[in-house]
Amino acid sequence: MSSGRDELSRRPERVIILDADDPMTEIYGRFVWQEEHDRVVDAVRLQAYAEGYEAGRNAALSAPVQVSWRRRRTLRDRIRLTLALLLALFVLLMLPVIFL
Predict the structure, then answer these.
(1) Hey, which residues does 17 pair with through a beta bridge?
(2) What is the mean pLDDT of the chain?
(3) What is the pTM of this model?
(4) What is the distance between the alpha carbons of residues 17 and 29, in angstroms, rounded to a whole number?
(5) Helix (H, G, I), strand (E, B) or coil at 18
(6) Phi, psi of 30 (to 5 degrees)
(7) CA triplet 49, 55, 56: central angle to 5 degrees?
(8) Are 46 and 53 in contact (CB under 8 A)?
């Protein structure tokens, strides 16, 4: 860990960057070292993940769970239901004949 800090402190603060097409032209602006950029992006990514996880967890715990299952009846299901109803009707109509 300390070697990483030593490496960061040894970096120059002013860096001259030249244009690849015209090496005599300097490029001005704010530049960031790749390692620093990666470190900051990782920290922000972890923080955003933790915030999103906590928000999702809170939303899941606060909302009641309601499951609804809808299924359309297929042709086979309708045929089976019709046959079951016809059998039940037949049994009900045969009861007076059997017991009389």
Answers:
(1) 27
(2) 82
(3) 0.41
(4) 9
(5) strand
(6) -100, 125
(7) 90
(8) no
